[in-house]
Specification:
mainly alpha; 6 helices; 61% helix; 0% strand; elongated
């Protein structure tokens, strides 16, 4: 399976500068000024470029979603509960009922954001 990437101009510039650093045409200090990164960050980028090539410079999505991310099904469940059973509750009371009766333990702000959408 062939992987396709969307590459930004910034990433192309970074690859060009790091390639010059690896080839010895440019120092890390010069690359630091051009890219606006710290010396230590450039060391990490250079190491990753040497190990992984161009793909090492690209941003990668985390392999799993954030632990606290509200899934679409949970989002729909909250909305349905609000519409059917708890339509006249304020957010704080609704939050307490979600935890107590349905085992949904989210922060006040998370529930508020779901209801605003």
């Amino acid at each position: 399976m062939q992987v396709q990437y969307i590459v930004t101009e910034e990433e192309l510039k970074r690859a060009e500068v790091i390639t010059q650093v690896v080839n010895g045409c440019m120092s890390l200090r010069q690359a630091q000024e051009i890219l606006g990164l710290s010396y230590r960050q450039l060391l990490r980028i250079k190491k990753r470029f040497i190990q992984e090539g161009f793909e090492g410079l690209l941003r990668k999505k985390p392999p799993v979603p954030q632990a606290l991310k509200i899934t679409q099904s949970l989002h729909e469940q909250i909305i349905n509960l609000r519409k059917s059973l708890y339509w006249d509750f304020n957010i704080l009371h609704f939050k307490d009922k979600l935890k107590e009766c349905h085992g949904i333990n989210l922060s006040y702000e998370s529930i508020r954001r779901v209801l605003l959408k």
